[in-house]
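Shipment paperwork, digital attachment
Item: protein structure file
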Amino acid sequence: MFNLVKMSYNACDEPAKRWYDTKPKNVVKVKLKRCCAALLEIARGGPRVTDSRNGWVCRTAAWNGHEDCLRAAHALGYRWDAMTCQAAAAGGHLDCLRYARDNGCPWNANTCRWAARNGHLDCLEYALKAGCPTAGNACDLAAGRGRLDCLRYLHRTAVYDWDRITCILAAKNGHVDCLEYMRDNGCPWNSLVTYWAAIKGHLECMRYAHEHGCPWHEKTCFWAAVYGHMDCLAYAVANGCQWDEDARIWAADYEHLREYL
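Attachment content:
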């Protein structure tokens, strides 16, 4: 079930493991995780560390990308569920995801969502082509995390919708490349794009939005000032963004802001 290197490493005492870990890069590195420890103990004739109905062994193996552990856990009767596939997709471990599915492990829409969120395009492509359930906001997750390749793929497949929230999340997190791609492909937006760019200090997103016709939010100047993003404030004021009256009164009390009124 396990490769010989992992079994040999596990059999070593701690000084031997430390010696092996300091060897040059041309040796196979071994990283034992909780899944390895639990299953190798069984392989040595020890007791099960947890009830086989508990799904954490398969989930942990999938998350760590340990296909050998996943195979062993499945052979020993450890339970797996949709969270196993989700963990494999979230970690970007296509081999584990494919093995789980080939052997009857269930999945749900979170497999695609986590693959998109964490930027694992190969897992995302596999899941969608294999008929994984789709629901929720995968485009939002990809845009919010700056996963442009996943965002492109989701748009091309037209499985998921995008909307104003998708653009807002890209701007909020400073992903101007995602924002640009979405606008080039017809995704709507509104003034909350400049609002969140101001709060988070993402000048490039603010500049792109303004230059491409996104309206100013009435609180753009206020929030840029509150959070000390003076480059955003200077750009907004220089490009016609107006303070609302309450914000103007507030800013007048601060000498460093008066030049922007």
